[in-house]
Amino acid sequence: MLKYKPRLDLERHREPLLAILREVALTPNFSRQQLSRLLKTHPKDGIGLYSRDELIEGYRAFAGTAGLPPYENTVLELLRLKPVRSSSGVTPVTVLTKPFPCPGECIFCPNDVRMPKSYLADEPGAQRAEQNGFDPYLQTYTRLQAYYNVGHPTEKIEVIILGGTWSFYPESYQIWFVKRIFDALHDFGSGINRCAEVEAALKTTSQFQPAPMIDAPFMNPIPNVALLDGRHLTRNYNQVVQTIYRDEMYRSRDMAQAIADGKREQSPSDEYATWDELEAAHRENESAACRCVGLVVETRPDHISVEEVLRIRRLGCTKVQIGFQSLNDDVLKMNRRGHNVAATRRAVKLLRQAGFKIHAHWMPNLYGSSPDADIEDYRRMFADADFRPDELKVYPCSLIESAELMQRYEDGSWHPYTQAELLYVLAECFRLTPEYCRLTRVIRDIPGTDIVAGNEMTNFRQLVENELTRHGERSSDIRAREIGQRTFDPDTLRLDEVGYASSCGDEIFLQYITPERYIAGFLRLALPDRNLEPLTPELGAAAIIREVHVYGQALGLGESGDGRAQHAGLGTQLVERALEIAAERGYQRVAVISAVGTREYYRKRGFVDDGAANSALYQWREC
Length: 623
Known about the structure:
- The protein is an alpha/beta fold.
- It has 4 domains: 14-79, no CATH class; 84-210 and 237-299, no CATH class; 322-479, Transcription Regulator spoIIAA (2-Layer Sandwich), CATH 3.30.750.200; 482-622, Gcn5-related N-acetyltransferase (GNAT) (Aminopeptidase, 3-Layer(aba) Sandwich), CATH 3.40.630.30.
- Helices cover 37% and strands 17% of the residues.
- It contains 22 helices and 18 strands.
- It has helices spanning 14-26, 32-41, 52-62, 73-79, 124-131, 136-149, 171-190, 195-205, 210-213, 237-244, 246-260, 275-285, 306-314, 329-334, 341-353, 371-383, 405-410, 419-432, 460-470, 478-481, 570-584, 599-603, and strands at 91-96, 156-162, 226-228, 231-233, 291-299, 319-325, 357-362, 391-394, 399-400, 438-441, 451-453, 494-502, 505-513, 519-528, 542-550, 589-592, 608-610, 618-622.
- Strands 1-2-5-6-7-8-10 form a 7-stranded parallel sheet. Strands 12-13-14-15-16-18-17 form a 7-stranded mixed sheet.
- The longest helix has 20 residues, at 171-190.
- Mean pLDDT is 87; it is low at 207-233.
């Protein structure tokens, strides 16, 4: 299962480590380029270079001794590996659910039964998930440990649950999966490591061990045919998954019933937890050292209902990734997406009514589309008030050999865009993206070895930005304007308010920006139509704060930094302004869709809990 890197013997390497760390800590404005040169002058064992995690471990151990100044966060930032990972204000942890049948039949989707639907075993996140047996505790804990080892803060975590259609998994699995994520957060924050215990339980009680059972990627050049270890099987993804994991599915069902009936003692790997247990984990996380400040799941538009929205909310979710893919019914039908645009409209409205952040997926170059049609489709996404997502992943269609789209490629009815065509489409999409939307990703991180035809360049966003620069333009989306690691003069910030209509009423996007329009923090305020029936009593007569986010390098709880956006009071100022706007527009109170780990933040600002089953679904404050 897990592979552990041996820890460095710090005492044996004490002198070279101290020589490196003293120069880093005592040299003003020390740069990363200087660090690279310095590492070469103090080689590890005379031949290699010390890794960042080894330097950081040494710094944590030796700070304040042997001429090394006391521990400072600024030194840690210099040593940190890939600082961009936490430069958006939170540290993201992505976990994958196990392979499970999918309700979709999309022709562009890969069919790798080692993975949840639409994912490939070569993708980095998928590899981490498989190495951890798709166990939520192991995935979360090991990812937190990896972040900590390379110097990233682990106090404020955004948990992103990916893998197939979340809403299609059994409710009992969902509750257990989320609860075990919280268990890992709490154990990590308390310095407790139960990974060995969980691994042992997986090995002895679970038959779900995909790696040794399946040794080769799935190929599917013919509809509903998979290639397993060199053998064609006339079964589709769902049939193969159900066959391979049938015993595990039955075992999980029977085990859950036995635990519920008190006939069996629960193991750490048993996929069973109650709502009460999850809500107890939520309450613990409100004041934990490692808090969940955002919880994300992904699903399909045709699996969103009032009941599903409230259930997702009860799990503690604050954001939903949802696959639009296209806003053209003909294209959706040709790609066997399984739903129409009307389903997408309804899903977005329900999610927005509940206060969720809406993170859409959209795919240019689908079968039946064209560059100009794609641009018009993208234009519709923001021109039509029924859509207007808060965040967006743009995933140009790439051909994977196991996808049914392979047939359309071989008969010539579909072809991937050329680089020039794709650049033309994406550059125009960037121009059409409003300031209130964040383009989270522009290309999916699929290894080039898995792509039969289509774009293999993972830095295509940079190509688009270069193209815009060539024309004297730049992207106005949030990600392009994040303050990141930049310092700024707080006196130069100004509050900008952007209003737009939605299918539920009006939205106000409040943002603190620099003179160059870099964004330091923002708030999304929904002003629902008063004639719209609220989904829950708590939302009656209430405006809704759907998101508050302050950008800049993530800092620990209670930390602050000169010239940094984090913990500079911007969030509180945004909330107070939102309350003023709501009162001006005649709303009696403002509700907030708080993450579990931010409930205390809102309580300190006058918000009170309200919700069902002892779960704070929403918090609210009188205007």
